[in-house]
Amino acid sequence: MKVAIIGGGASGLFVAGKLTQAKIETYIFDGNEKFGKKIYITGKGRCNVTNNCDKENYLKNVVRGKKFMYSAINQFDSQDTIDFFEKLGCPLKTEHGGRVFPSSDKASDITKALEKNINKDFIQIHLNERVISINKKSSFIVKTEKFDYFFDAVVIATGGKSYPATGSTGDGYKFAKMFGINVITPYSALVPIKIKDKFCSELEGLSLKNVQLNAKINGKVKSLFGEMLFAKNAITGPIALSLSSYIGENKEVELSLDFKPALTSVKLEERIMRDFKENLNKEISYIIRGLMPHRLTSIFLNCCGIDEHKKVNSITAKERNKIVNKLKNFTLIYEGLYPIESGIVTAGGVDLKEINPKTMESKKVSDLYFVGEVLDIDCLTGGYNLQTAFSSGYAAAEAIILKADKV
Ligand SMILES: Cc1cc2nc3c(=O)[nH]c(=O)nc-3n(C[C@H](O)[C@H](O)[C@H](O)COP(=O)(O)OP(=O)(O)OC[C@H]3O[C@@H](n4cnc5c(N)ncnc54)[C@H](O)[C@@H]3O)c2cc1C
Fold it and tell me: Which of 244, 50, 30, 202 is nearest to 118 (CA)?
């Protein structure tokens, strides 16, 4: 059996390792001059390679494709990923939130390990060779910028559409369509959220910890707790990025921030009353500074319609209520999401209805497989997207090996 893998990213390299270990003649094509260009920039250059969690927790972090991934994660889970890299001489460490990184903090060590796993006797490496089209007659014809090649099976591991400079330009969708396979139009996920309020840019670089970001998306509320960051005309940071994945293509979105999610409005009011009593002759901005970063104080009071120099002893009960309400429900005007190219991951992709979840094989075209981000699967940050690349890659490779054994 002769197999082509289109794409030498996380999923493609993983499949190449498994197939060549099983002594299957494998060709791997990548348009870049080297493998794993996207891996290199993952986890800010440290590569959060998986999440040290059980299957249920992995599935909780899959935004779209949860049901589909059930079988693949049962075949190869995060513990398997950890064992896989450690056996290849790439020690790993687990950080907060279960995030797993190479102990060296070097993403390039992950690519090196994936390359090391490839049995050199069974691989033909074709770098700097972009695939242009794929057809099937009696066998698959893979047309590149240089030649036409013939294969018994093809694995499409071309990734999504985000960060196109890494080589992931969405070609896999084009290949799927060539076979009449449906593709869910790709859209932004894990991207900054654009905010209309002018004050947003004034706060650029300000990070808020332990806050709750709420989004009413088409009437349904999604709330995330943690850290976020103000950027130019946008919000970003862990909870904003995650929330963007839930927003997706929805247009009707209302955003609000809860600065004190650990306190109910009643408890918060009690605390403020106490603060007021102890500081009657101070300016109101003094009290607010105790509740949020200094840079936010005037903006916050301005949004409440209260002069920041007003003395605490002249704040009315109505104004105090306003403060409590705004602390629990500070509105941000939603403008939209950043474009797909700036996303950590691409939502949308090859329609999962077209793919066998146990094998990643197309239901329409036998011996054609799709793995990794090209599929309509996207996860939250924390190592889950790379885990998806490995789990889907494992399922496809196992299925191909099984077929090869039968030939
Ligand atoms: C900035 C950033 C940080 C990230 N950090 C993390 C993280 O820490 N943890 C995590 O789990 N996920 C992270 N991700 C997401 C993760 O990197 C991807 O989900 C994962 O790399 C997808 O793997 P893949 O193999 O499906 O695709 P890719 O890694 O995108 O690989 C696809 C490959 O296919 C090649 N290719 C495409 N078209 C063709 C063609 N026509 N011919 C030949 N070759 C082609 C490309 O050159 C590329 O090398 C991050 C993403 C970004 C952008």
Answer: 30
Site to substitute for ligand 1 among 34, 46, 168, 236, most atoms within 8 A of C-beta: 168
Q: Nearest to residue 147, comparing CAs of 157, 158, 133, 159?
A: 133
Say how many Å lie between the CA of residue 41 and the centre of ligand 1: 9
Q: Specify the domain boundaries for CATH 3.50.50.60 within the chain.
A: 2-188+343-406
pLDDT in tens, 204-263: 999 999 999 999 999 999 999 999 999 999 999 999 999 999 999 999 999 999 999 999
* Distance of alpha carbon 133 from the chain centroid: 28
Task: Dump strand ranges (E) for 196-307.
Answer: 207-217, 220-231, 234-236, 253-258
Are 36 and 9 within 8 A, CB to CB?
yes
Please indicate whether residue 343, judged by its CB atom, sits closer than 6 Å to ligand 1. Answer: no
Q: Are 10 and 372 in contact (CB under 8 A)?
A: yes
Which amino acid type is present at position 104? Answer: S
Backbone angles phi, psi at 360, to 5 degrees: 65, 15
Amino acid at 169: T
Residue minimizing CA distance to atom 51 of ligand 1: 344
30 pocket-lining for ligand 1 (C-beta < 6 Å): yes
CA of 71 to the centre of ligand 1 (A): 22
Tokens in use for 276? 């007021």
Residues contacting residue 118 through CB under 8 Å, at least 6 positions apart: 13, 16, 17, 20
Q: What is the distance between the alpha carbons of residues 298 and 276, in angstroms, rounded to a whole number?
A: 18
* Ligand 1 touching residue 15 (CB < 6 A): no
Q: 3-class SS at 281?
A: coil
Second CATH level (architecture) for the domain 2-188+343-406: 3-Layer(bba) Sandwich (3.50)
336-351 pLDDT, tens per residue?
999 999 999 999 999 9
